[in-house]
UniProtKB/TrEMBL annotation:
Residues 35-202 form the Beta-ketoacyl synthase-like N-terminal domain. One of its GO terms (molecular function) is acyltransferase activity. This is Beta-ketoacyl synthase-like N-terminal domain-containing protein. InterPro entries: Ketoacyl_synth_N (IPR014030), Thiolase-like (IPR016039). Transmembrane segments: none annotated.
Length: 263
């Protein structure tokens, strides 16, 4: 399956948007750890912006940057939003409330606790009726999300934005499901491979699970196991290098082989 990547975004520790992340991944800039502070979701009305939580803001920041870079109207893009943990902070808060005598859960918290909240905010912000799917595939949410997004892009013959994101989880759940750092990324995929873009991805799915390729950047290697969405880093590193090559990615069940060709 062949698609063109027309837009990219990355938000993680020491990675503030694609132009900066690209330089770090190519080792033109030094990686420096730091807080993840994505910009506000300008697509949302003020009331919706106040109601949205950190997870939604991370997802929308990535989706907005990638769509702006692509030059395509966000309202025209199909959406695939992939997240392993959901909004763990809100889930922890709700569980604490319902296990405390007299505890109450606010409607806003309940509204934001659902797994497809970021996808819903995206469609609200851009007044779009184009379908947006929300996936949760444990540690393989990026690979499974990429497979889903590419399939939709080609079958429906429509540009598609893939958004993958996760945040640390506080409380007892966070001790069982450890996620140490925020991380989010987005890809705008175009089915017409004659269009200009950043690179072409040629993706093959295999039923046998193989070991995932590692990030070559010595500082960024430690980010991959800290967040399921950060498993995108080996592919992002290859794209940033602007060289041809193939990236292997675990996608339990199975695996992906992703051939990258710069445009």
């Amino acid at each position: 399956m062949r698609v063109v990547v027309q837009g990219l975004s990355v938000w993680g520790p020491g990675l503030a948007g694609w132009p900066h992340a690209e330089r770090v991944l190519r080792r033109e800039d030094t990686w420096q750890d730091g807080p993840v502070t994505p910009p506000p979701a300008q697509c949302l009305p003020a009331n919706e912006r106040r109601r949205s939580g950190p997870l939604t803001r991370l997802a929308l920041a990535a989706a907005e940057e990638a769509s702006q870079q692509s030059g395509l109207q966000p309202s025209s893009l199909r959406g695939v939003f992939a997240c392993s943990n959901g909004d763990g902070a809100i889930v922890d808060s709700i569980l604490s409330a319902i296990t405390t005598e007299g505890g109450e859960v606010s409607p806003t918290q309940f509204h934001n606790s659902v797994h497809n909240a970021p996808a819903g905010y995206w469609t609200i912000g851009h007044h779009t009726h184009v379908p947006a799917v929300a996936l949760g595939c444990y540690d393989w949410s990026f690979a499974q999300g990429l497979l889903k997004a590419v399939a939709e892009c080609l079958v429906e013959k429509t540009p598609t934005v893939l958004v993958v994101y996760d945040l640390p989880i506080p409380g007892p759940i966070g001790k069982a499901r450890v996620t140490e750092n925020p991380f989010g990324c987005a890809f705008v995929l175009q089915p017409d491979t004659t269009q200009d873009g950043i690179c072409v991805l040629d993706i093959t799915y295999g039923a046998t699970t193989t070991q995932q390729d590692e990030v070559l950047h010595p500082d960024l290697m430690k980010l991959v196991p800290t967040n399921p969405a950060a498993r995108a880093l080996p592919l992002l590193e290859k794209i940033a290098s602007r060289t041809e090559g193939t990236v292997k990615m675990a996608s339990v069940p199975g695996s992906l082989s992703i051939a990258v060709t710069p445009c």
